[in-house]
Amino acid sequence: MIPDGSDPRWKRVLTTESDLSSAALATRILVTRLRRDVKAAPATLAAKITELRDFVMKNPFAVADMARF
Predict the structure, then answer these.
(1) Cβ-Cβ contacts under 8 Å for 16 (sequence gap 6 or more)
(2) pTM score of the predicted model
(3) Which of 28, 47, 52, 66 could pair with 20 as two cysteines, CB 3.0-4.6 Å apart?
(4) What is the pLDDT of residues 3-53, one digit of tens each?
(5) Superkingdom of the source (predicted)?
């Protein structure tokens, strides 16, 4: 099950420097970009969470990646 956008795990993924090495390449690229965007403009956090959640919903491999974060 994919958590709701208000789940604190989404924020944690985008605001920490947790290790991404076990994630699929596509997930690593997206999360890295989103982290950089959030760091540059913290007010965009909600939009970036939505973008990440949409990606996970569309890509079954990403569900397993997010379960590790």
Answers:
(1) none
(2) 0.92
(3) 28
(4) 899 999 999 999 999 899 999 999 999 999 999 999 999 999 999 999 999
(5) Bacteria
